Amino acid sequence: MKNRDKPIFLKYIETPIGTMVTCATDKGICMLEFSDSKMLERELQNISKIEKAPIIEGESPFFAILERELSEYFVGKRQEFSVSLQPFGSDFQKSVWQVLRTIPYGQTWSYKEQAIALGSPQSVRAVANANGQNHISILIPCHRVIGSNGTLTGYGGGLWRKKFLLELEGVEEVKNKTL
């Protein structure tokens, strides 16, 4: 393994909506997922394979920043994150995730609006698929994307978490929706 001396560090973080698993390389956070995600094991294997490095439990300087910023977010004192990120994906996926990061706190977009912002209005399904491949929950806010009819749609962490996050951010139209 070319990066054997640079492992990917993993840590469990408790949040108001459940335990999350985070991973960091020497460049930044590369994963923040809910520990009950059905895809967690596969995501960890993919990250290890891409980086050609083992994943081990340990500490990274990025974890302290992440934990502080998540704590501030969950008590309503943070709207943007500054911790360094290193998302793994195709160029298209990375461009989709970059657009996600431009959706303002407390607002929602439809997949169509996201595709338009990407400059590719015909790519609604590809955009939705790329959102589903986002491995850095909350920090890359795919929870801010809803169906064009205003309904809560797909979220790897579960729709109840998506609703919680949107309500935390003060999104009014979700407050009256039932799951």
Rg value: 16 Å
Helix % is: 25-40%
Shape: globular
Number of helices: 6
Sequence of secondary-structure elements: EEEHEHHEHHEH
| Main beta sheet | 4 strands, mixed
Number of strands: 6
Structure commentary:
With 179 residues, the chain is of the alpha/beta class. 35% of the residues lie in helices and 16% in strands. It has helices at 40-51, 61-74, 91-100, 111-118, 124-132, 159-168; strands at 8-15, 18-24, 29-34, 55-57, 109-110, 145-146. The strands form two sheets. It has a four-stranded mixed β-sheet with strand order 3-2-1-4. It has a two-stranded parallel sheet with strand order 5-6. The longest helix is centred in the middle third of the chain and has 14 residues, at 61-74. The chain is globular, with a radius of gyration of 16 Å.
Kindly list the characteristics that best describe this protein.
179 residues; alpha/beta; two-stranded parallel ribbon; disordered C terminus
What would you say about this model in short?
The chain is an alpha/beta fold and 179 residues long. The protein has helices spanning 40-51, 61-74, 91-100, 111-118, 124-132, 159-168; strands at 8-15, 18-24, 29-34, 55-57, 109-110, 145-146.
